[in-house]
Design brief:
The complex is a heterodimer of chains A (244) and B (441). Chain A is an alpha/beta fold and 244 residues long. Chain A contains nine helices and nine strands. The radius of gyration of chain A is 18 Å and the shape is globular. The chains are: A alpha/beta (244), B alpha+beta (441).
């Protein structure tokens, strides 16, 4: 039986790219997201192109109450769980608008934790499974331009590190993927520095490789590891004066 | 996002806003937008103040493995379809000389291929499409449903609205190989006789040397092909009869400087090309890729013409005037000495449509690198074409005058009438439409 992969946030550009990499290698897929129409189109396309089984599942990260039911509706939980969900949001709006702030926090952190807890407990019980989740360099130090998004991603990074620590001895593997800028629908219209911007396909390949090679923390473009080292090393008295 | 865009011939260049379209509705306040696929139309057909790129609207929605009917979003490329469906034993019903175009573009240009005399245009194989109109309404149209809009959409250069999905028929094949026959013709008379003699071949076209005068005027290599059946393959080919990719692509990394191309180098190239076939007749079985897409293997071959770009000039002449017309026009080009590397000659079959390009007769496609005086010269050629009752291919055009278009396309007025009904506020608009006064600017 072919291995199965669950992709959460499946209509994102990176998730799509990843879905095609796995489908090409004949993995069966379950696509999860909040837009069933788009998921169905994507699932059909993957089935026609690659002759693999591809199901879809409606999951809304904003609605944690529904997560257990959604996960339990799967006949079996796939061997690999990947999460690409993310919401950059409008930071300026979110400062004054709790609904937007909550959406940022819930989509990037609380919702993901609620969902991954379920998968992780299941993997722990069966003593195998791989979880890989897209976090962000924004989570490594809060900056005035996007600290709401950044703080949620920081929480996520800490969660993943703890989860890895807990499940390592149980045969379950947890990967934190830290991309820098990615050229996606989320960043369309933003001016991104080309050499520091990865394509969705590059990120997807990094995820695939990380799962295969059982990596722990993956920076998609190597420069980002060093950029973040420098940014983290800036002393706070100086950092607070920077316009970042 | 603000950016500069040009299509395949690198001329003209446009400052514009380019955004991706993924099937959502189009905001009502958008003025002057046009859809764009992979930008392989040559001139200004896919340029406007706002460009909506369909390349991310690229899913295959349905496929019936029994009948070969496929429904896909407009941004799927032919290249992609070949990769998916050749291994399943299906081929495109009609394909142009590049596979790097989208299905939406294929319908909007109503593309033709080497099999036009047998199979007609791409639109002839489309059973229906969905279209997002300028007023935001999404409609289905087909030869029987909203047939007026359908007829205006095929070959309509994207001016009827956004092509959303297209349903069309693929063609069953036993192998991905083509049984090919190449015959050298010493002059124009000979090659025209060959076209006539081999009319029953599914695929045919000729490379023609437009610069040679005298008794070798119009020397060519005629190429014909049929899809090879399994038993026509070599034992090695039989191991992978439905492989979709052979060989590697070569990239043209930079624009070549202009001086590389001159009448001497073009002549030398044509000489080499003509003499690469030592024998008069060659018969062999080749993969479909080099047969249909010889230039695709040189990615960015358009850079060969340098930074300034080039224009492609493709015209068709009615069958009754074809021979006389080809002699006149090719003679004019030869005297000027501005011919292209390789020109393509092809015989079209009968075609009835609104403003699709083909008509029964011969079509010739040439490249001209941009230089001073070129447009005046092409205007002269336009007059010749017009006098002979022919017309110019909109998908490749970048400089034709509005009158030439109106007078050479008998369906143009009816096309305009349909546009007035479905695009009354002129929201859907391209630079080509403005230039040809299809819509007032």
């Amino acid at each position: 039986m072919n291995q199965r992969v669950l992709l959460i946030g499946a209509t994102s550009d990176v998730a799509k790219a990843c879905a095609y990499i796995y489908a090409e290698k004949q993995y069966n897929l379950v696509l999860a997201g909040r837009k069933p129409d788009e998921l169905q189109i994507l699932a059909n396309d993957i089935k026609i192109r690659h002759n693999v089984a591809c199901d879809y599942l409606k999951i809304d990260l904003m609605d944690s109450n529904t997560h257990a039911e959604a996960i339990n509706s799967l006949p079996t939980i796939p061997d690999i769980t990947l999460c690409f969900a993310g919401y950059l949001g409008d930071h300026a709006l979110a400062i004054n608008n709790w609904a937007e702030a909550e959406r940022i926090i819930q989509t990037n952190y609380t919702g993901v934790v609620s969902l991954i807890n379920l998968v992780a407990n299941h993997y722990e019980k069966q003593k195998k499974g791989t979880i890989a989740i897209l976090s962000s360099v924004a989570g490594e130090r809060g900056r005035q331009s996007n600290y709401l998004y950044g703080s949620a991603k920081a929480g996520l990074t800490a969660y993943l590190s703890g989860l890895r620590n807990r499940l390592a001895s149980q045969g379950v593997h947890v990967i934190s993927v830290i991309p820098g800028f990615i050229d996606t629908r989320m960043t369309e219209g933003l001016k991104l520095p080309k050499p520091l911007t990865a394509s969705p396909h590059q990120v997807a390949q990094a995820v695939f490789k990380a799962v295969k090679k059982k990596k722990n923390i993956v920076y998609v473009l190597w420069m980002w590891r060093y950029i973040m080292l420098i940014i983290k090393a800036i002393p706070e008295p100086l950092f607070k004066k920077l316009k970042l | 996002m603000k950016t500069t865009v040009s299509n395949w011939s690198n001329y003209p260049v446009k400052d514009t806003t380019l955004t991706h379209w993924r099937g959502e509705s189009i905001p009502a306040d958008r003025k002057n937008w046009i859809a764009r696929g992979l930008g392989r139309c040559y001139g200004d057909a896919a340029l406007s103040d706002q460009i909506l790129s369909t390349v991310k609207h690229n899913h295959i929605l349905e496929f019936n493995p029994e009948s070969g009917v496929i429904c896909c979003q407009s941004g799927v490329s032919l290249h992609n379809l070949l990769e998916v469906f050749v291994p399943k034993g299906w081929f495109l019903p009609v394909t142009p000389g590049t596979k790097f175009i989208t299905v939406g573009g294929a319908l909007a240009s109503d593309i033709h291929g080497k099999n036009h005399h047998i199979a007609g245009c791409f639109g002839d194989h489309v059973s229906s499409c969905t279209l997002l109109l300028a007023d935001g309404k999404r409609i289905r149209c087909s030869p029987t449903e909203n047939s007026e809009v359908f007829n205006a959409t095929r070959g309509g250069m994207g001016l009827t609205g956004m092509i959303d999905t297209v349903t069309f028929q693929l063609k069953k094949i036993e192998s991905s190989y083509i049984k090919q026959r190449q015959i050298k013709a010493q002059n124009l008379n000979e090659v025209l006789a060959l076209f006539d003699k081999y009319k029953s071949y599914t695929y045919s076209m000729a490379w023609i040397d437009c610069l040679k005068g005298g008794k070798n005027f119009g020397r060519s290599i005629m190429m014909m092909g049929e899809h090879a059946t399994l038993d026509e393959l070599t034992s090695k080919q039989q191991q992978t009869p439905l492989i979709s990719k052979v060989g590697h692509d070569i990239n043209m990394p930079i624009n070549l400087p202009g001086f590389v191309l001159n009448s001497l180098s073009v002549k030398a190239f044509n000489w080499l090309y003509f003499h690469k076939n030592v024998k008069k007749v060659i018969e062999n079985t080749v993969h479909y890729d080099p047969f249909f897409y010889p230039l695709d293997s040189i990615l960015h071959w358009n850079r060969m013409y340098g930074k300034k770009g080039f224009v492609q000039y493709q015209f068709v002449l009615p069958i009754s005037n074809s021979k006389e017309g080809l002699v006149k026009i090719m003679d004019r080009i030869r005297q000027k000495g501005w011919g292209s590397f390789l020109s393509v000659l092809k015989l079209f079959g009968k075609q009835e449509s609104l403003i699709s390009f083909p008509m029964e007769g011969y079509t010739l496609a040439l490249d001209f690198p941009l230089k001073k005086g070129l447009f005046n010269f092409l205007d002269e050629l336009d007059e010749l074409v017009l006098d002979l009752g022919g017309r110019i291919y909109l998908t490749k055009d970048a400089r034709m005058k509005a009158d030439t278009f109106m007078n050479s396309y008998p369906g143009s007025r009816e096309f305009l009438q349909i546009l007035k009904q479905i695009n009354p506020d002129l929201t859907v608009q391209s630079d080509l439409a403005k230039r040809l006064s299809i819509l007032p600017s």
